[in-house]
Every structure is written in C-alpha cells, then in structure tokens.
Specification:
Layout lengths: L30 H14 L19 E6 L5 H9 L3 E6 L3 H11 L14 E4 L3 H7 L5 E7 L20 H7 E11 L2 H12 L4 E2 L15 H8 L5 E7 L2
Parallel strand pairs: 1-2, 1-4, 2-3, 4-5
Antiparallel strand pairs: 5-7, 6-7
Helix pairs in contact: 1-3
Length: 241
Amino acid sequence: MSQPDPTLPRNTPEGVPDRLYGRRRSHPLRPRQQLLLDVALPRLRLGPAEAAEPRAAFAAPVEALWLEVGSGGGEHAAAQAAAHPGAGLIACEVFENGLCSLLARLLPEGGEASTTLPGNLRIWDQDARRLLALLPEGCLDRLFLLFPDPWPKARHAKRRFVHPAMLPVVARVLRPGGEWRIATDDPTYQAWVAEVFAQSDLFEVPPPAESRPEGWPPTRYEAKALREGRRPLYWRMIRRG
C-alpha cells in the first residue's frame, strides 16, 4: 500500500491519486536547456507562498485566473497567454524537457536572463496536487487538461488526473460557472472520463466535441494522434453552483 506523500498539504483529501506523472527527464539536458532551467525558470516560477494569492503573483494585472495541468511542450500555454493578456495562466509541468520547450518558445538564445517575459504567465514545476491544495477556494476561472498520460494499465488507473477523488479537489478551486477543458485521444481514457463524471453532480457535462473547438490552440500531442489515426474528444465541463 502506498504511503501518503509528506510533501502535500495536510488538507489534501484522502484518496487523491498517489502519483500523477512519470519521468521528470527523458535524456540528459543540453547546455541551453540547463541554462533555461537555471536562469529563466526562476523568473517565472510560482512559489508556494504566492499560491495563496495567485492573481497578485503576476507581473501584469489579470482579470481571470487559468491553470493548465501538464502543459507539456508549452505550445498551448504560450498561445493562450499571448491571445488573452487579461488572463493570468499558471502552466503546471514537472517534466524538465517540456519546461525547456516552453521557456525556449519565450526566450531567444542569449536572452535567458534579460528578455522580457509575458506578464500573465507563471510556471508551477511541482506536483499539481500540491498547487491545487494551496490555491484559494473558487479562484480559478478555467482549468485545462489536454492529452494527459492515460496510464492505460488497470493497476495505474489511480494515477489518472481525472479520478473520482480529484473531482472535488478541482471543484473546490474552480468558481461556479468555471470551465474545465479536457481533451484526449486515448479510447480507454475517453471512456474513463465519461464514467467518472457520470458519477458526480459537481459538473455539467455536455457531449464532447469530435473536432477541436475554436479557441483551443493545437498541441504536438493532438497532431501526433491525428497523424496516427486516433480521434480526440474535447470536453467542456462546467462547475455547478
């Protein structure tokens, strides 16, 4: 039996998945990548103390607060931040290579310490469960979960972010009427999403779209799925009041 994670806040509900991610690094980092992590990442990193008042943590005033769990290579987070300067976006990712990809999109080589960064973007590079436990109630207007690791083996299902124990965790921080966007191309995960949300009355669950809706920037994972003949589904779950 897995033991509780001692790094999580004490108010983390019992039953929350014991792990939400796999590796932190896929291969040794190149010098440019290491420089991005050492110099650029601290300029955007959101600290635990700042999570208590997240809107105040941005360099520019924001009118809404969005969170992307598992931002991957950062293409979606960067596009959303650029298209919506009034929304403060927290990109959550522990995979170092993905963090490097996001930072490389924002900073030219040689500008790691000096190039101006988006004032409405911050990065959380720890476990997403920890951030969700630290955020104030009802602070989020939107949450993105795009093409998460499906953890396809039955014994790993407890690691899926969409999980019966996670729904109240997300519902606590998402304001009434707030939107939880989910996209996945994995048939097992698609069925799992439908099953888990059918057991909860916390969210309105309209039928998923079968093509990417307007306002959803593409990701490399979606492109790979389409190339390989898999059909993504796109949900907009709405937090009930």
